[in-house]
Amino acid sequence: MARIKIEGRLCGPYVQELDRTWRALDPEAGDKKISVDLCGMTGVDEAGKRLLAEMYGKSRVEFITRSVLTEYFAEQARERGQAQTTQGESTCASRTLVN
Fold first, then answer.
1. pTM over cut 0.70
2. Is the domain defined by 2-98 classed in CATH 3.30.750.24?
3. How many Å apart are CA 98 and CA 31, to the nearest integer?
4. Which residues neighbour 34 within 8 Å (Cβ) at sequence distance 6 or greater?
5. From first to last of its 99 residues, what are the pLDDT tens digits of the chain?
6. Alpha-carbon distance 53 to 80, whole Å?
7. Which contacts of 85-93 are long-range, i.e. CB under 8 A and separated by 24 or more positions?
8. Which of 73, 82, 83 is nearest to 37 (CA)?
9. Phi-psi region of 11 (alpha: psi -120 to 50; beta: other; left: phi over 0)
10. Considering only CA atoms, which of 77, 8, 75, 85 is closest in space to residue 39?
11. Are 48 and 17 contacting, i.e. CB atoms less than 8 angstroms apart?
């Protein structure tokens, strides 16, 4: 299992760094899970929220939380990531039916 630990605010250049790290680890993980430790995270901007949701939607990363705040960040990412996945599936199904 690969583990990414986030400390402080996930914003600005840190979002880009997390994106690079996740994309580098994802193909190497194969059947292994990637866990994202949010225990030290204190805040997140909109770009960070989008990235966490994408990570969940595409890779089903596992979020590790320790507080109400970090669980809230994780739950937002799960909901947004699931919604993105569901929208993608329905779009593909619609295209299949039209063809």
1. yes
2. yes
3. 34
4. 1, 2, 3, 4, 22, 25, 26, 55, 59, 61, 62
5. 889 999 999 999 999 999 999 999 877 666 778 999 999 999 999 999 999 999 999 988 999 999 999 999 999 999 999 988 776 554 433 333 344
6. 5
7. 85/57, 85/58
8. 73
9. beta
10. 8
11. no
The amino acid at residue 70 is T
* SS3 per residue for the chain: CEEEEEEEEECCHHHHHHHHHHHHHHHHHCCCCEEEEEEEEEEECHHHHHHHHHHHHHHCCEEECCCHHHHHHHHHHHHHHHHHHHHHHHHHHHHHHHC
Residues composing the chain: 99
Rounded CA separation 10/55 (Å):
14
Token pair, residue 55, equals 């990570």
The tokens of 12 are what? Answer: 């600005």
